[in-house]
Amino acid sequence: MRTLYLKRGLVPGAPEVCTVIHVSPLFRELVVEAVRIGHLRMKNRLHCALRDLIVSQLQNASPVPMFVALPQDSRALGVAQAFIANQADTPSLDAMCRRVGVSVRTIQRTFRREVGTTFEFWRRQMRLMKGIELLVEGCSVKVVAAEVGYRQPSAFRGTVPADSWNDTQSMGLCAARQGEPNDAEVAGDVQRAAPLSNSRCLT
Q1: How far apart are CA 162 and CA 64, in angstroms?
Q2: Does 31 reside within a domain?
Q3: Is residue 86 part of a domain?
Q4: pLDDT, tens digit, 9 for 90 and up, residues 59-113
Q5: Number of helices (H) and strands (E), helices first, in the chain?
Q6: What does pLDDT average to over the chain?
Q7: Strand 171-175, strand 19-21: pairing
Q8: What does the alpha-carbon distance between residue 100 and residue 75 come to, in Å, rounded to a whole number?
Q9: DSSP label at 162?
């Protein structure tokens, strides 16, 4: 996993809460180069240009939805909660329906009416959201796939839009820890960078 630290205020309008964004091929290469350099020094024209491109990509990147709607119907909600509680070893929809005393057909109708999708599509979206959360935390694709109920990592990869994949499939934006001040506005490392003073991190 690659991590960048940007000084707070460098990206106007940056979200104040953790956010996952799509990463274009260009953005990915900019991150790779920034991490290779380590610290972008503002006295270096090339470093300044790289910083400006990174900021531009951040400002234009589209967010990945990090929530999935839940049904209001108590029976459908019971099925949804049973899935959420144990994504790694989820029983079949039929088994979850029997547990709450409702037919599969009723649950499918309820999900279409209240959530706007089939249960299967809702389940894939829930797995994707949980998977992105784990990826941003630094888990490997193999571990993530197992945690969200896929036997093979390739099956999980197939749920993620192709243009979202970088080392962690998407980029997470979060508030960074405080660190020692220096003359760099962007710092990067493959695992963990020494944070900049008053900085935000991108992983």
Answers
A1: 13
A2: yes
A3: yes
A4: 888 876 667 889 999 999 999 999 998 888 877 899 999 989 999 999 999 999 9
A5: 8, 6
A6: 78
A7: antiparallel
A8: 6
A9: G
Contact 11, 59 (CB under 8 A): yes
Q: Strand order in 39-41's β-sheet? A: 19-21, 171-175, 199-202, 3-7, 184-189, 39-41
Same domain, 158 and 175: no
Which three-class secondary structure state does DSSP give residue 152?
Answer: coil
Number of domains in the chain: 2
pLDDT in tens, 107-157: 999 999 999 999 998 998 888 888 878 887 778 888 888 888 888 887 777
Instruction: With 0.70 as the threshold, say if the pTM is over it.
Output: no
pLDDT class of 183 with cuts at 50, 70, 90: low
SS3 content of the chain, % helix, strand, coil (to 5): 45, 15, 40
- CA distances to 146, 147, 158, 169 from 63, rounded to whole Å, are 25, 23, 19, 13
The parent domain of residue 13 ranges over 3-64+170-202
Q: 84 with 136, same domain?
A: yes
Q: What's the longest Cα–Cα distance across the chain?
A: 68
- Return the SS3 of 59: helix
* Alpha helices (H) along 137-202: 141-147, 153-157
